[in-house]
Amino acid sequence: MRIEGKGLIDRGQQINFQFDGHSYQGFGGDTLASALLANDIALMGRSFKYHRPRGVLSAGSEEPNALVTTGLGAAQEPNVRATTLELHEGLVTKSQNRWPSLGFDLMSLNDWAAPFLGAGFYYKTFMWPKALWEKLYEPVIRNAAGLGALSGKHNVETYEKAYAHCDLLVIGAGPAGLLAALTAARAGADVILAEEDTRTGGRLNAETLEVDGKPGAVWAEEITAELAQMDNVRIMTRTSVVGAYDQGTFGALEKVPHDVSMRLGAPRECFWRIVAKRAVLAAGAIERPVAFRNNDRPGIMTAGAVRAYLNRWRVATGRNVVVFGNTDEAHRTVADLQDAGVHVSALVDARHHAKCDLDVPFYAGAEVCDAGGGKRLESVTIRTAKGTENVQADCLAMSGGWNPTVNLTCHMGGRPTWDRDIAAFVPVDGAVPGLSTAGACQGDFSTHKCLEAGVAAAQGALDDLGLKRADVVAPAAEDGVYDIYPVYAVPGKGRAWLDFQNDVTVKDVKQAAVENFQSVEHMKRYTTQGMATDQGKNSNVAALAVLADATGRGIPETGTTTYRPPYTPVSIASLGAGAQCKGFAPERFTTSHKATQEKGAPFIEAGLWYRPSYFPKAGETHWRQSCDREVNMVRNAVGVCDVSTLGKIDVQGPDAGAFLDFVYTNAFSTLKVRRVRYGFMLREDGHVMDDGTTARLSEQHFVMTTTTAAAGQVMRHLEFVHQCLVPQMDVRFTSVTEQWAQFAVAGPQSRDLLNDLLDTPIDDESWPFMACGEVSIGGVKGRLFRISFSGEHAYEVAVPSRYGDSLFRTLMTKAEALGGGAYGMEALNVLRIEKGFITHAEIHGRVTAYDIGMGGMVSGKKDCIGKASAARPGMVEESRERMVGLKPVGEVKELIAGGHLFDKGAEAVSANDQGYITSVGFSPTLGHNIALGFLKDGPARHGEVVRMVEHLNGVETLCEVCHPVFFDAEGGRTRG
Amino acid sequence: MRITCPICGERDRREFYYQGAAVALDRPEADAEPEAWVDYVHVRDNPCGMTRDLWYHEHCGSWVVVTRNTATHEVIETALASDIKEQGA
Amino acid sequence: MAFSGWRVLKEGLTGNKGWAPHWRDAAPKDEYDVVIIGGGGHGLSTAYYLAKNHGISNVAVLEKGYLGGGNVGRNTTIVRANYFLPGNSEFYSHSLKLWEGLEDDLNYNVMMSQRGQISLFHSDGQRDAAIRRGNSIRNQGDDAELLSRDDVKRHLPYLDYDQARFPIYGALLQRRAGTARHDAVAWGFARGASDRGVDLIQNCEVTGIDVEGGVVKGVQTSRGAIKAKKVAIIVAGRSSQVAAMAGMRLPIESHILQAFVTEGLKPCIDHVVSFGMGHFYISQSDKGGLVFGGDLDMYSSYAARGNLPLVEHVMEAGMTLMPMIGKAKVLRSWGGIMDMSPDGSPIIDKTQTQGLYLNCGWCYGGFKAVPGSGYSTAHLIATDTPHTPAARYRLDRFFTGRGLMDEEGTGSQHNLH
């Protein structure tokens, strides 16, 4: 019910919204919860297990009950707290976890079955008959569980991530946070003030307390206005700091207001990484409910929430309120309600010594022990020393005291300590380096103490930052004594709720203790206490008090569970912002990409690069037709292929040759200038890391090529070897992969094609096999390497990247004129398999030089990376799986990469496994499939017929083991 | 997590590649016993507390020896691996 | 006390007053036949199988904190047998078979849910590797199926097939893979071991290992000295520290693995989905939370908590693969300490100290190994001969170079596995 008075709402702005299909009105500044309460809607949700009717418990992000689903279609968002959901025009919300409706929920039958559904019941049943677990029990449990539903549709909204840096991050803009920010800002520090609420002020917005002789909320507005004018301050409202990480890094989620997020391109949420030299946590405290029988009836809420709805939103949460508490705040609640004209039928104070100066039926040393009603509270039972008494009520404001919000101080492994005076956990100093605490989050519960603590925390931070302290004095404010008589659970029969959402009751915790789940972690895991969406913010302390009692220990000895990030739940879309669609990893394009696209070539991913699969010609309906043609083209005429994606590393310096000797297994210092040599490098554990060719352009200048996928790894490796092992060597490395566009020109007519382009023609004498050097192409300085990955007379020609597109188009045109053309990865793969050349399909990280038949390339004359490990006995055993060629010899001609090899006649089981196939291609040159693979003692078994079995496609093929070079074993074509 | 690159200053952990214990600097002689090589390549002290490990600052290409605490993630000191290697050599 | 639906009914009708402790809390005795250091999943299952299979019940499990408080208490609950290298293949195959009978065996519902794991691939090369893997699995006698892109669409209609950075070519499906309720596994083994006479001793930290003349004699603990004929170190995450008490250095580096759970949601993901290109895997718990994770934080650590770069990377992978989860909210993140070995595979072996056994190096694959690891370790302790499915988990393989099991092919950089 909305009442008179100003509050912090804008009555001039009427907002229409829907809840469960009904239309309602609220005001600017309302949350869904305040607006529903203003419309006398108390029932807002259902609990997780028993589907008990639930109303709002709190007025903050810790709300466990009033969770709704908002939005339609792909914008549907489940589990939104009604207590923090800002009302906006046209907002559509619905309740969740009920069927068929919130008012009539058939699943609430669970509540009747509660005796059988206590803590951990599922560990003891659903085991018979076994088959029914997956067919019946589990699906039923899964469908009953869960809260709201995702839409199942791809996200269509914008989310963002950003970085921010500051001298001081102030977390929370209540009285302590505001003064901390002001103190630091006046001293000239760069300040970020983050507040999860839509406005600064914290509890001042919910109370009638005065600061500096003004209403608290007015004071907060004035301070905020001063801060907002300062260039060195950034106020971030709607921003929840959710995690504390190493070296002053904090994660924070900013929710963008609806009217802003609706603008084109604007995000709904932004996830911030804030790097702060110092931080002040001023996160306040959260009020504890009290556990008593049926304490979950809609209309029962924390006293602080009742005051917040009353004072901030001018909503009376009931017409007939009972207040139950154990501190003076219960009295303040009564006063606020009475001032607003709301009837209070009883004030129940658990403290025996409490006095009351208000005009209200007063019960000292008493407690509320039961609540009547169904979908709305109707009455409460008050128990005093004399007996029990039933009082009519549609709202109960309860307070068990306050828990400092210590969460962030525990994100780096810190544990809070128990403070008996306030019956709550308080943070430990220094638990997060650079972060200090101020105000209610460290147990200062008077407004004045909060203000003083804010100033003090900021002054401390200024000292650390080496800045001069600013002269700020905490203004006059309420400075009451926090006098608490701890009440966690009221004894009695029936079920008393601790964790509202997860339906964990006092009985459950006690039963867990009986069953020996006595560690607080065991109790949590067995009962699910504290595992709901509020992560125990409302209930953990009371639950462990009950556990402590049940196990005969004290609360400090019982300890807490671990506080983990995030403080409030964070959408995956915001944490993963930017990655949807193609944003997950960079896309790298070669200079020939556009020309290749124009040719209609489909692309495949090669690491982060895109490379053409094949270049289809008119009339070709299957990739194999294109691939076969391209292979034939290279074998018979000339083909052109972009090989720019291979890593290219410039190696220069007087010691370049000696250095390469150390990283490669074979020698490079002996390589002549203007010559190229193939080499491979090992990891220090003796396995092959990568291979490629390295060209010596001059005495002190080499250009190394790596495989596409390993370019970064090799670069890092070179720097490692140099800086960490041989820094005395004078050599430097630069990655030039992006700087050079490089094209393979392969085939019998490759030289003819090139001579058509080169300013100075070449011949066998000037450019023999494995020669390299500078060339000029139409006046452009380039490089030419006579190397071959196809087994043909071939070259690779490189030009600065800006000429890549032009050169590729020219090469293609000229090749076509010679009966050739561009070829793609499919043909490249077939060509190299025909020649037995390896790629990362073969050097997959588990093979040795010995395995690939290159043991002889590990020079005996010098040390190199990996040499010692490669000499371990198990690395050079004949029985190892070693590389072979394979060709089909039976009726079935199909070979499949990944198929395993067995002796002819042996059963295809692990014990008989002889090896596997790594690469397969159809060789148009030979007219059949060919494969490379690894076979136990392979080189000794050439000529033997083995069986390939590929279970997944159901293929079995007899194949003959052969040398891995299928074509032109003597290499005459390459040299010719 | 933030690490100070001796060349570039304090940077986010995202800019660094982690390699492992700084024992990698102490490569055995080529003719060392097999045990020495197994120790170098595979065996680790793996302390819970202070450790020295190798990180690669991908933005400037420096290998950095980071002295830090594996229990708290506190970074105590950073230095260029090449400086340490040359001083030690 | 036997658990059953009838028992739950009977107790429910009589006020739930008859329930008893699931396991006995024991005080340490002076001497045991076997002392197991570590009351995690592997330690508890080792104790259980020592008692059950070998009749050795004069056993103590010493736990520094609370039972099941290590990685068995903070993982992503995936159970599978889809390894492809000899050694891993037979071991995980055996472990999966034990999982399938675990509820019967333990009389404890560990909620083993064989909902199937779908491992996506994104290129021809990855498909070839998946086929090799799938055939290894089939050769071992376990199940694996190759799914085409269209097959994957039928199973997982919610993936982004058109826009994802790495297009989906297909997947390998193992139907018998799935998830289990992780805590229940620890508790079930604890109860089973305790019922068979094993002493489970919590809050008992081992501070020293007594060795005389190359023979283990017992352990020193925060609750006094305990003599033992045999001692097993089963403390993944802390292996290096405990092994050091016996003068050993291990081929282990400890790393952080983070994982995440969202708020409860109605059923939307019915399988375990793994996205290797993005180091991302996900399933939905019976409670409704999406449980997911990714790669290591990539620096050695014992802090049991991680940092944002990895958090964001995992979420980014999720958003590119299945952008329908964007509006699910991460409720909790946590970090566990992983025993990373140089080849990514574990060690179950004797040590040079007589009577001292070592079980470590589970990297981030230890949960699914819980039954198999305990079974094989118990066999090794009881008989002093390796159990066949775990016979390749030798400590000396790094010395000999023989039988390395590097599934990732990344070599001896501990964090890359």
Automatic annotation (TrEMBL), chain A:
Ranges for domain Aminomethyltransferase C-terminal: 883-968
GO MF annotation list: aminomethyltransferase activity; methyltransferase activity; sarcosine oxidase activity
InterPro entries in the record: 2Fe-2S-bd_N (IPR042204), FAD/NAD-bd_sf (IPR036188), GcvT/YgfZ/DmdA (IPR028896), GcvT/YgfZ_C (IPR029043), GcvT_C (IPR013977), GCVT_N (IPR006222), Sarcosine_oxidase_asu (IPR006277), SoxA_A3 (IPR041117)
The SoxA A3 domain, residue ranges: 493-578
Keyword Cell division: no
Biological processes, Gene Ontology terms: methylation; tetrahydrofolate metabolic process
Keywords: Methyltransferase, Oxidoreductase, Transferase
Record field: transmembrane: none
Domain (GCVT N-terminal): residue spans on this chain: 593-862
Highest taxon of source: Bacteria
EC number(s) from the headed UniProt entry: 2.1.2.10
EC class name: transferase
Stored Pfam families: FAD_oxidored, Fer2_4, GCV_T, GCV_T_C, SO_alpha_A3
Keyword Phosphoprotein: no
Cross-referenced NCBIfam families: soxA (TIGR01372)
Protein family membership: Belongs to the GcvT family.
PANTHER family on file: AMINOMETHYLTRANSFERASE, AMINOMETHYLTRANSFERASE, MITOCHONDRIAL
Stated name of the protein: Aminomethyltransferase
Gene this protein is translated from: gcvT_1
UniProtKB/TrEMBL annotation, chain B:
One Pfam match: SoxD
Gene Ontology molecular functions: sarcosine oxidase activity
A Gene Ontology BP annotation from the UniProt entry: tetrahydrofolate metabolic process
Top-rank lineage group of the source organism: Bacteria
Protein name per Swiss-Prot or TrEMBL: Sarcosine oxidase, delta subunit family
TrEMBL record, chain C:
Cellular location(s): Cytoplasm
GO molecular function: nucleotide binding; sarcosine oxidase activity
Location of the Rhodanese domain: 34-78
Keywords: Cytoplasm, FAD, Flavoprotein, FMN, Nucleotide-binding, Oxidoreductase
InterPro entries: FAD-dep_OxRdtase, FAD/NAD-bd_sf, Rhodanese-like_dom, SoxB
Single GO BP term: tetrahydrofolate metabolic process
Pfam family for this entry, one: DAO
Catalytic activity: sarcosine + (6S)-5,6,7,8-tetrahydrofolate + O2 = (6R)-5,10-methylene-5,6,7,8-tetrahydrofolate + glycine + H2O2; sarcosine + O2 + H2O = formaldehyde + glycine + H2O2
GO cellular component terms attached to this protein's record: cytoplasm
Co-factor requirement: FAD; FMN
EC number: 1.5.3.24
UniProt keyword Flavoprotein, yes or no: yes
Keyword Cytoplasm annotated: yes
Similarity-based family: Belongs to the SoxB family.
Protein name as it appears in the record: Sarcosine oxidase subunit beta
Organism of this sequence: Roseovarius albus
Gene this chain is encoded by: soxB_1
